[in-house]
Automatic annotation (TrEMBL):
This is Neutral zinc metallopeptidase. It comes from the Bacteria. It comes from Novosphingobium endophyticum. Pfam families: Zincin_1. Transmembrane segments: none annotated.
Amino acid sequence: MNGTIGAAPSAADFEALARSAFARIPDPFAQHLNGITVHVEEFADEETLEALGIEDAWELTGLYQGRPMEDESVWVAGELPSRIVLYRQPLLAEWCETGVSLEALVTHVVIHEVGHHFGLSDAQMHALEGQAH
């Protein structure tokens, strides 16, 4: 080993990991994920942090933006599609600090945010995450 460090994973790398995580989500949940998009940003913006009551952008690794499935209606129109945002820099920091694989971290965040789409509790999200590995 020559002691050099490679480049940090790119936004495209994060998107690929997120797609892989989506592909492992089991039915019946997988049937209801059409239309949810994944986006990668470096950090959450100030408006998002303020709305969530979070002071430090390093604390937010992902966010679900959209209407929970239980609140969807044929009478709702003109809304943007639901989306999951992964925040690259906080995820990279957690990866370095914890030693957990980046794939496992991204999968955890994706599953958690998908859980918000379904209106799941934290306990239900953990069970779903266990099935997606």
